[in-house]
Structure formats: C-alpha cells, structure tokens
Design goal:
The complex is a heterodimer of chains A (114) and B (109).
Chain A (H helix, E strand, L loop, with lengths): L4 E3 L2 E4 L5 E6 L6 E7 L6 E7 L2 E5 L6 E5 L5 E5 L8 E8 L9 E2 L3 E5 L1
Parallel strand pairs in A: 2-11
Antiparallel strand pairs in A: 1-3, 3-8, 4-5, 4-9, 5-6, 7-8, 9-10, 9-11
Chain B lengths: L2 E3 L4 E5 L4 E3 L2 E3 L4 E8 L6 E5 L10 E2 L10 E3 L8 E9 L6 E2 L3 E6 L1
Parallel strand pairs in B: 2-11
Antiparallel strand pairs in B: 1-4, 3-8, 5-6, 5-9, 7-8, 9-10, 9-11
The chains are: A mainly beta (114), B mainly beta (109).
Amino acid sequence: ETGVTQSPTHLIKTRGQQVTLRCSSQSGHNTVSWYQQALGQGPQFIFQYYREEENGRGNFPPRFSGLQFPNYSSELNVNALELDDSALYLCASSLPGPGAGGYTFGSGTRLTVV
Amino acid sequence: AQRVTQPEKLLSVFKGAPVELKCNYSYSGSPELFWYVQYSRQRLQLLLRHISRESIKGFTADLNKGETSFHLKKPFAQEEDSAMYYCALTFQGAQKLVFGQGTRLTINP
C-alpha cells in the first residue's frame, strides 16, 4: 500500500507566475484535499475533490484551482502568484463520507514566491 | 465560524512529567475533534480522534462540550513525544478540517 506522494518537494517562483503542484493519493482513497500552511500556522483548507469534482472550498480566491483525475490523483494550480502564497502546500487523501477526518497527508510542497 | 485555539505555541516539560496540551474550540453544533502530530522530518499524521476514545502512545483526550475543550494528556512524558501537535475540528457534512496553530512540545531529558 502506497502513501500520499507530492511533487515537487520544493520550488521557487516569481511573483505573477503560475504554478502546478501534484499529488498522488493513497491506494483506495478517492477523496483529495489541499491545505496551505504558512510559517508558524496550522494548515488551512483550500478545497477538496471527490469523483473529479470540487466538493468544498475554503476562503481562497479563484486563482487557486484544482483538478482530480480518474486515478484519483490531483493537481493544485495557482495563477498570478503573490508573495503571500509562499507556504507549505499539503495534500491529504481519505475515503469519502461524513466529515473530513482520518486523512493521510503527504510531505508537502514548499513554495517560495520571490 | 468554526475556530480552534491552542493557547501555547511552545511547551517544555521534563521526561517523566505529566503533559497537557490545551485545545479550545468554537462551534455551536456537535463537532468531531482530532489531534494530529508531526515528528521531526516526518509528515503530519493522525494521533487520535475523540469518537474512537482510544489511547494512542499513552495519550488521551476527552471532549468537554461544556468547556468546549479537547485537551491532550499523557501522564508520563517520553523524549520521543517531542513534536508539533495540532488540534483540529470538523463536523457533519463538512469537507474540511479546521486546525489550530499548533503547539511545539519539547521533552527535556
């Protein structure tokens, strides 16, 4: 059984650029959630995907978008990067059902915007 | 809006001493509460959830709806308990976890 894998582990982008982060979910999990963790803060919910559709969204602007593929892997896209987008981006997979507990987290992608 | 507060950013105790990491939440309905832990150089992982009422690695947490708290406790701290601990909340029908800011626990030898 494989866990959640994220790529890349680190990247540096310039303000105004676009970025795509990738996530492969744990075997058997068909729900993927993305979180942003700024330095010194807890993770903040960006959105969740289930059956290739967005299934809940946090307080993030539309320039944060995502995709889920038939194999349950997912992408997070951020357009028009801002300095405040610098953070650790976490992907978590889970089974569907009430609530959102019981996540398996990936190691994250550290994004630095300069 | 739902909120989770962990009042201590840093907590340092000696090995063998009792540990209590505080967590308070604001939510008017029936929440589901969790503790997640992140050891050095490892990913965030679930430690325990209140509905299972388990004791994991000697840690327990009781949901107190009157005080809206879900404090994490361990009677005798061990050096391997040093880690970052996050309290988190969700509720029926939600697709998200709401996390606190985290408490860095250091166990001194």
